[in-house]
Each structure stands twice: as C-alpha cells, then as structure tokens.
Amino acid sequence: MIIALGHDVISKGCFMGVIQKSRAVQGNSLLALTACAAALAVGSIAVPNAALAQTASARQFDLDIPAQDLNTALLVLTQRASLQIVYEADKVAGRRSTAVKGRMAPIEALSRLLTGSGLTFRMTGANRVTIEQAPQAADSAIQLGPVRVEGDSAAGGSASLMQQSASVSPPGYVATRTATGSKTDTSILDVPQTVNVVTRDEMDDRGVTDFNAAIAYTPGIRAVDYPGGQGSPDIYIRGFRAFNLYGLYKDGLRSGFNQYDTDIEQFAYERIDILKGPASILYGQAAPGGLVNLITKRPTEKPYHELQLEGGRFGRKQVAADVSGSLSGDGALTYRLTGLYRDSGTQIDHSPDDRIYIAPALTWKPADGTSLTVRGNYQRTVKGGAEQSLPMVGTIFPYTTRTGRFPSSLFLGEPGITRYEVNNYTIEYDFSQVFGEWTFRQNARYSHADVDYVASGYRSFTETTATFGFQKRPKTTDSFLIDSNVAGTVMTGTIEHNLIVGLDYGQYDGKESRRGATNHVIDIANPVYGAPVVWNVNLTTDTRSRVVQTGIYAQDQLKLGGWVLSIGGRQDWVGSKDNNYLASTLSKADDHAFTGRVGLIYQFENGLAPYVSYSTSFQPSSGVDFSGNSFKPTTGRQWEGGLKYQPLGFNGLFTASLFEITQRNVTTTDPVNSGYSIQEGEVRSRGFEFEGKANLLHGLNLMAAYSYTDAIVTEDNANASGISKVGSRMASVPHHQASAWLDHAFDRGFADGLKLGGGVRYIGSSMGVMNTTSGIQYDVPGYTLFDAAISYDFGRQLPGANGLTLTVSGTNLTDKRYFTPGFYYNSVFYGNRRAINARLSYRW
Q: Strand pairing of 269-276 and 253-254?
C-alpha cells in the first residue's frame, strides 16, 4: 500500500493514496479518507522544479510530537506543517518514531522522526517527500541516507543520486546540513561558525581534477599551487598554515600525521566541508584557522554505476569507475567499489602525476537502527620528487644581464633518480547503533604508508645556471585513529538539548632516514641531465617518531524558540617520543590542553540567522628551549560574528562573517641564549568572509565569494641582527580573494542537454618569507584567472544514449603566468598553466 499524507489534502478531509493493504492504517474513517482520493495519487502527481524544494524546508513551525507509532507521527506532522509525505505502508508498519519538540523546518522534523528507523526520504517536489529505505550516509559522523531529488523533465531537472551528510539537501551547489560542525546531523544555520561546502555536483560541473581546484572558489582558504609538488596539499585557512595535516580530515578523522605519507584523490570524495576557525572542541589538535573534512563515497541501496574516460593537457589519461548497489534482496547488505587509474605528466618536465586508487566498501544493516560500513583503500602515487622553488629574479623580476625568464617546465632534479612514490593501505569502519532516542557511533581507521622519496631542489642560482642538491628520505608510517560518541536529544521543560559525549584516540609511528649527495648544476635555458649522483656514506637523519593522543569531549546544543545556544568543552592529552638513532638520544613531551566553544544563534522565520561565537584550539609544537624543556602547544582563540541566510523562495545559502583569531605561544628568538627560541610570539588574523550559493530558476547555478584576511605578527623578539617581525604580514596570505561562477543547463529545443559555465578567480598579492638578517620581505603579485566548462547530456536528444555525458573544462584559460610564495626567502613557485581536459562519463 502506498500512502500519501498531505496538509492540503487533509484540510479538505481526504488523503491521497492507493490502498492495497490496510494493516498500517487503523480506523475505518481513515480508510475511507484514503480511498476517496486514490485516483489523485495514481495519475496526477506533478513533480515541480527541484530548485523549489527548499521552500518548504526553510519555513519553521513549533512542533511537539511524542515518540509513538511512526505512521501516527507522520500523520501528526502533516497536520501541523505544510508537507506532503508519500510512503509504502509496509515499510512504516511496526516502526516507532523518535520525539520531536521545538521550532524547526518540516523536513528537519521528518528527519528526526525517522532517526533510527532505517528509513530516509527524498524530495519529489515543492512541499512533497517520499519515504524509502535508507542507504548508507555520505558522512561518517551521521547515519542518514542520500536524498534523491527529481526535477520536472520539462524544467531540465534530471534525477541523480547525491550522497551528502546533508540528508535533506537537494542536488546542486547548496548544502544546508553538515555533520562536520557538530559531529551530529545539524543544520548549517545551527552551527555558530562558518561552514563552507563543496558538493559533488559542483566538482563535476566545474570539471575538478584535484583538491586545489575543488576549493578554488571557497573564501578564506588558499591551497598553494605547486605543479609537480609532493605530498598532501599545502593549505592556509584564515591566515594560518595547516601543515602536517593539522587541518585535513577524512570522514571526521584526521587524514594523517605526516605531510608526505599521503595525498588526496579527488574522485574518492562525495563532498568537502570546510569548518572555519578553531575546531579543537570536536577534533583535538588542529590549526587555529580551521579544518577541511573530506567525505568519502559510501554504498547505496539503489544501483549506481558510472564509468569515466578522461584526457587532457600534459598527456593526461585517466579511466575511473564507481559502482554501487545492493547485494541482498532486502537491502541489508550493500556495496560500493570506486577505482581509478591515471597516467599523466605535468607542466614540469620529468614529473608525472600517476595514480592507482581502489576503494571497496560494504555496508551491513542486520536490523533497524544498526549499521556497519567497512572500507578498504589502496592508493599508489608517483610524482617527480623535485622541490621546485625558484628565485624571484628570472620569474617575477626580469634578469639584470639577459632577457628571458625561467621556463615553467624546468625540472630541478635528475630523471630516473628524483622521484616521489607512495603506497598507502587503509582499512576503516563506521558503526552506529540506535538505542531509543540515543545513538552510539564509532569510526576508526588504520593506515600504513611506504614512502620512497628521493628529493632534489633549491641550492643556488645564477642567471644562467641552477644548482640543486639531493636527499634520499625513505619512510614508513603507521597510524590508528578511533572516535566513539553517544548523541541524543532530551527535553528540560521547553528547552531541547541535543547532546553529544565522546572519546577519541590517535596513534602514529613513523620511521625515516635521510642521506645527502653531491650537488648538480644545469644550464637553465638548455638543461642537460645524466650526471651520476654520488651519495654520501653517512646518514644525516635516522629517526623514529611516535605520537599518542587521547581526548574526551562533550557538547550541548540548546534550542528554545528561534534561539540556539551551543556550549562544549574538551580535554586532550598528547604524548610524543622522538628517537634520534644517530645521536643516541630520546626526547619526550607530554602536553595537555582544554578547549571549548560557546555560540549563540537566533533564527528568524524569514531564514535569517545572526550568530556570535567564541572558540579555542591547540596545536603541539616541536623543539626544545635552552633548558631542554619541550615547547608547549600553541593556542588559538577566535571571536566570530556573522549572518547566515537561507531564503524561503529558492534553494540558496548565504553566509557573511567577521572574525579575529589570535595564536599564542608562537616560537620566537631567545633574547638571552643565542641560537635558541622561546615561546613569546603571537600572530593575529582579522577578516571578513562572504559566500553565496544558489540554485536559481531552471538549471541556473550561481556562486560568489569574497574574503579579506589581515594576518600579522603582533609579538616577536628581535634576533641577533636586530630584526623583529612585529607588524609583518604572514607569508602566502593575500589580503583579498574573490571568485564567482555561473552555469546554466538548457532544457529546450536543440540546446536541450547543454550546460555552459564560467568563472573568475582573483587572488591578491601576498608576502614571501622574510629574510631574518635584513628584514626584507618581498611582495608576490596577485593574479586573476578565468575558468570555464561545457557539458552535453546526449540522452536528452538521443534516448539510446541515456546516461552519456561529455564535459570539457579549462582552468587559467588565458594562460596567465603567476606565482605563489615559496618555502624560502626570495623564492616562488610557478602557478598552474592553462589546462584543458575532456571527460566522457556514462551513468546507468
């Protein structure tokens, strides 16, 4: 039996539905009401434009629905909120709802009613949803299924699976829910910090091929463009560098502990959440600017199959597959297999970008409210290994004695010798169990990496020659992370408490040795390679590093009317041991820190939500002072205030925020003991951010973003040369960043199936690393880049070609020659040159 409950229909005294059985509907009057409108349910359901689906989700109602039979609870919801609910009676029969109390949107109430039921819903029109069996969630921190939004074919809205932690967000560029900001399924309006989301639809439409391109239109975050670079992306968030993965997470767990033992394959992820500002209250040790949470693709109950063929500039050739579905008739066992093979060059000579990625996953749901997902992952990455820092003379500035500049393809290494090869092996699981109105969740990951890294790079330059050195630095690392928490909702009078209490643990063990070699010299204009590399007999480094981290945390999100108050705290303990086998020394450090967050939001009925928050963070520091005492962790604190707006008339989300972050315990020169450091430094970052994303009209998507960041050193001791950094800008952090993207899917006539998109990115000037002897800090000029994408869905014109889509995308279309600051004084990296890629995808 299919039942359709609708507010408008009920008000007329009649349900829409088709009755085949009656066991889920009690009472003759209810049967009669359902039967009287059966014809309406069979043939007259019009599916409106998916962009209107957000209208019902934005309006809020005061609700008080106790835990009870789910069928009855759904009936009560339709009577009290303007929402039509369609479901099969067999799927609802015998299930109970959870309690819902407070002021919220109808679809948020529906999501809560279904918590633990094993059911989810998809929006099939404005104010209309269909309940169905829940596939696995896309975000490890919650266990909700993806939402499938169906658009009117006349409006160009093709049906597509969209796995998100935002279980009620339609496909497109707008996500309205997140688990990253609170470790529970939460409306973004309820999180008292800025949350930016990059959806899979956005990545696909823009033709994204790597992490840097994925976050390129997000305000307040900068990933250094580094062609041929090694390891994970080098990112700055709100002015602070998040090196060694202090700001890079995967499925709610830190991605790793070492910058060079892992990399990101963008095809593996369903969406990216960026949480701005200190986040230690939930995640422990982290950079003060915020963190990026990559959300992996998960098994789905409904079949999903995709095959991609891709080719492009620099000899890029790639094949990728993504298949998912059920292995059992009842949907209790589902699978997903994601794989990729890439053979590619880069703009740097002799620097490949080759990859193999294989990720199988299984989800088992033996009973309602129980879910276990197990995922494996093998990733092999091969890159060039040359550290590509170049001097400013010959790149930004012209040569003094000759014409020309460094070629953007110059390779500072020896082909066949210099290389970066990493093999990663990962096994992880997510488990959840519902106990009444409480849910226990646990996610864990074990990773092993073998790193074969022969590095080469910057030693010195003349206007005709480049000198570079070598370093063998093999490494093996093992890490284990686990996070367990219990979350639920309780009422104290009229106040709703959304509680979470958890414990997490992390362990890392890494072994590394390094050995140097004689330098090589090449002619810049006509490099000749092949000279033998003579390795030094003795090692320069032979170490083993171990880190153990434990944290306990608790958070209460209180709701009363339109008010949302978040209060949380966390205590962390971090211990580290470093063996130096060459010096036969062992150094230890034991740190602990308490961090927290308090935030207040008021949500108006028109979708406006002003907020203010205060949050803190900590990040361990390496090294010792003159007395041999290990450095304490740096600490961060942020004040943030802003306004979020989720409009009622269309699917959109807009966020504007002001912030000030202060990082303390920064190391600075010891004014008494030459050559040593003490922790008396301080850095302050102030700024403004805006982001707007909207799915407008029929097939029109718009994104716009702007950020202003003023990150400076506020406290520093003068060094032996009398140089203090006080007042200097932090390296690589531009004052201004702005971007906009617009695309449109045509749905009529000969252009039906065509989608055109274009974007512009502006990154302002930033400072290079300061020369601590002279105090000179060079400015690296800003730049403006243009991108575009065009795609064609062949199935819109050729029924036999359903699911076949060709996408051609281009970045830096004008081939703008630009640079980003390097690792050293007076050094820069070449930016990414123009790249055009074509992708043929088939979905069925």
A: unpaired
Q: What pLDDT, in 10s, does the model give residues 62-111?
A: 788 877 778 888 888 887 776 788 887 777 876 778 778 777 888 888 88
- Inter-CA distances, 618 with 151, 232, 250, 280, 822, Å: 46, 22, 20, 7, 26
* 615 and 661 Cβ atoms separated by less than 8 Å: no
Reported as a single tens digit per residue, the pLDDT across 587-623 is 999 999 999 999 999 999 899 999 999 999 999 998 8
Of 363, 437, 320, 292, the C-alpha closest to 145 is 363
Return the percent helix, strand and coil in the chain, to nearest 5: 10, 50, 35
Which two structure tokens, joined as six digits, stand for 844? 């069925």
Q: Which two tokens stand for residue 768?
A: 């290079």
- pLDDT tier at 137 (50, 70, 90 boundaries)? very low
Burial 100-122 (b: 16+ CB within 10 A, else e): bbbbbbbbbbbbbbbbbbbbbbb
Region of 663 (left: φ > 0; alpha: ψ -120 to 50; beta: rest) is beta
- Rounded Cα distance between 28 and 598, Å, is 52
- Angle at CA of residue 488, ends 565 and 434, nearest 5°: 160
Q: Structural domain boundaries of the chain?
A: 1-133, 295-418+433-843
Report the alpha-carbon distance of residue 537 to residue 85 in Å, rounded.
74
Q: Which CATH number fits domain 295-418+433-843: 3.40.50.10610, 2.40.50.140, 2.40.170.20, 2.30.130.60?
A: 2.40.170.20
CB atoms within 10 A of CB 420: 25
Q: Is the pLDDT of residue 310 over 80?
A: yes
The 10 Å Cβ neighbour count of residue 20 is 10
* pLDDT digit string, tens, across residues 442-466: 999 999 999 999 999 989 999 999 9
Render pLDDT for 700-753 as a digit per residue (tens, 0 to 9): 999 999 999 999 999 999 998 899 999 999 999 999 999 999 999 998 888 999
CA distance 645 to 652: 8
**Cβ-Cβ contacts under 8 Å for 693 (sequence gap 6 or more):** 173, 174, 652, 653, 654, 701, 702, 703
The Cα 434–Cα 69 span in angstroms is: 17
Residue 161 Cα to chain centre, angstroms: 19
Residue 380's alpha-carbon distances to 263, 549, 593, in angstroms, are 9, 28, 37
Tell me the per-residue pLDDT of 16-34, one tens digit each, with 9 for 90 and over: 333 233 333 333 333 333 3
Pair of tokens at residue 18: 């088709």
DSSP 38-56: HHHHHH------GGGGHHH
Element (H, E) at 78: helix 70-80
Q: CB–CB of 16/4 below 8 Å?
A: yes
Which CATH number among 3.40.50.1370, 3.55.50.30, 3.40.220.10, 3.40.109.10 corresponds to the domain 1-133? 3.55.50.30
Q: How far, in Å, CA of 444 to CA of 430, rounded?
A: 7
Note the pLDDT of residue 4.
Answer: 66
The neighbour count for residue 844, using CB atoms within 10 Å, is 11
Q: Supply the angle between the helices 106-113 and 70-80 in degrees, to the nearest 10.
A: 170
The CA-atom distances, in angstroms, between 341 and each of 317, 355, 638 are 8, 6, 42
Neighbouring C-beta atoms of residue 463, cutoff 10 Å: 14
Please state the pTM of the whole predicted model: 0.83
Tokens read off for 662: 């202060």
Structure tokens at 702: 């718009």
* pLDDT band at residue 171 using 50, 70 and 90 as cut-offs: low
DSSP SS3 for 437 = coil
